Amino acid sequence: VFPSLAQAQASVANEVYQQLGQPSIFLFCPTEYCSSLCSPSPSKSCYLLTLGQELLPGIGIIWTGPKVVSRELSATLLEEVEGVLQRCPVIWDNLYANDYDCRRVFLGPYTGRAPGLMPRLRGLLLNPNCELQANFIPIHTLGSWFQNELRSCDHPDHAGMENTTALGDSQGTQERSYSPQEALELALLDWVAEINRQALEPGR
């Protein structure tokens, strides 16, 4: 019936989206959901080009970055993806995901995401560790990153904050820059306080 997989998927997704009354949040995960799965590249993928043209504009498209688990996300990559999908992507961030190897637990700060990404995102989902309690630091530091991004949107002149900080710019600019190490230290302080609070609860 359909000349390609992308056209079949877009047709079904569009019909479901319309049948549901075009909800404000409707997410579509493509078969090629990261750069390493694209052939030959995101900008030259016939599959992604078709989705960008055929999917209704209200449908959000999920993207994980250069790889399934991406160590870094850059504005340049997001520009390429936005161009081919004809919309800002929803990042499904697998930085902390450990379902592929449950012997590992990721407790470091949210890092590797360039400053100033927010205007190029339709949304961001964090895929956490399978172990609930292990996600205090990931979610806490993601919150710090997110607050910094919101401040950057309010003050677009400071979009290149990591550079101005390195040059010894004003204290105000430094306060607006996201530091993974500082975010980690704040998260650890709050986590210890939360552990102590729970330890004092009756029955603990």
Name the CATH homologous superfamily.
Answer: Glycosidases
Helix-strand sequence: HEHEHEEHHHH
List unreliable stretches of 5+ residues: 159-174
Radius of gyration computed on alpha carbons: 20 Å
Number of helix segments?
7
Q: What is the molecular shape?
A: elongated
Q: Numbering strands along the chain, what is their spatial order in the largest sheet?
A: 1-2-3-4
Keywords:
204 residues; TIM Barrel; 4-stranded parallel sheet; 7 helices; 42% helix; 7% strand; Glycosyl_Hydrolase_84; O-GlcNAcase_cat; beta-N-acetylglucosaminidase activity; OGA GlcNAcase
Description:
With 204 residues, this protein is α/β, with parallel strands linked by helices. The chain has one domain (5-153, 179-200): TIM Barrel. It is 42% helix and 7% strand. The protein contains seven helices and four strands, in the order H-E-H-E-H-E-E-H-H-H-H. The chain has helices at 5-19, 46-54, 75-85, 136-154, 161-166, 171-176, 180-199, and strands at residues 27-28, 60-63, 90-93, 123-126. A four-stranded parallel sheet has the order 1-2-3-4, with no helix packed on it. Helix 3 links the parallel strand 2 (60-63) and strand 3 (90-93). Helix 1 runs parallel beside helix 2 (46-54). The radius of gyration is 20 Å and the shape is elongated.
